Amino acid sequence: MTETFLHYVWQHQMLLPGLTTVDGQPVAVLQQGTPNRDAGPDFFNARLRIGEVEWAGNVEIHIHSSDWNAHRHQRDAAYNNVVLHVVYEHDTDIFLQNGRCPFTLELKPYMHPSLVANYEALMVPPEAGIPCADRVGEVPQFLLTLFMERLAVERIEAKAGTVHRLLEESRGGWEQTCYWLLAHYFGGKVNAIPFELLAKATDIRLLARWRDNLQRTEALLMGQAGLLEGYFEDSYPRLLQADYEALRVGANLRPIGSHLWKFYRMRPSSFPTIRISQFADLVSQSKNLFDTMLQMTDVRDLQRLFNRQAAPYWNDHYRFDSPCARSSVKQVGTMQADMLIINAWVPLLFVFGAEHGQQQYKDQALALLGQMRAESNAVIRQWQAVGISPGNAAESQALLQLANGYCTNRRCLECRIGYQLLKRT
Hints:
Blueprint: H1 3-11, E1 27-31, E2 34-35, E3 43-50, E4 53-64, H2 67-70, E5 82-89, E6 103-106, H3 113-123, H4 141-169, H5 174-186, H6 188-201, H7 204-209, H8 214-224, H9 235-251, H10 272-285, H11 289-294, H12 299-306, E7 317-319, E8 322-323, H13 334-355, H14 359-371, H15 378-385, H16 393-407, H17 416-422
Parallel strand pairs: 4-5, 5-6
Antiparallel strand pairs: 1-3, 2-3, 3-4, 7-8
């Protein structure tokens, strides 16, 4: 038994009828009170009829009555307005700091056995990691749908932290934030930070000057990445090196350290060299990127925008001076394009709408997810195994939020699915 569960039971009044205090007076809960997340009693401003008298005051909840004394509430004047002490088991009488003895309600006789059993089952989940794996099918579909819509928004809001951080650093510059954010996610999980550092070290205005010159754009980014140091045998890196040196003298450029980039245990198609060349193609072919994307309401337009390819040199290479056995065009795949939309553009668009009070952009962000196919990963496969299959990216994002934000952290008491299962007594 936990106080958190008792708070939940009291807040939702999941109790059997006929409540009486430990001294036999009938209790009618007219209003259970407002939960208090700070110091002081657990519920403020409750309205209760105890016996023939209607009371207004606070409610304090403990597992045992003696916890009142263990927590030293008897010495705290902040608890003098407690009308009702709600406990799981009553083991001693208690007193307020002013000497008054509050009414005590023992919950144990008024909690249905199946309510406790349902809670215990959620707290001891199966190996799959989804606490309600064997019972989620009992929840009505329309309630699942409503909850998923809320979870999709929660997922976007959870990702908005990176947007807000970059927006603050750019002093409210949306174009700059967009450039930095796309760079961050172009690097993938492994190289996100060095890619962001690269973007911050390479002024977007300098890139704009060479926007129509792909070679110079790539030279600028590769050089700022610290990847053009030393001697090269191939002519292409030597050309990039010469272009970068000419640019560096005029713009007083300082590259980031090449040691920051991770190549180890990565698929060659995700090497930083390939990603930087693809990013150069995006930057060189895109003018006013943020404003351009803002007008795109069809996800296919965004996918085409991100479907960039590395320079022809990289058809036969993954690193400078190291030819690969098989030639292939190094193009941004649909999966990576979708990840850029999901992780970078959708949160940025949502925050833009929130910051400007324009709901249409928040709706547009969710609509883009609804146009995309559902993701496929280990977490989604767990949900599919229990009968919940996402129909689009909005739903797969919702399920990821449910798993990572609720199930993993055992937040069943804050989950609408958990609520539905607990109350089925």
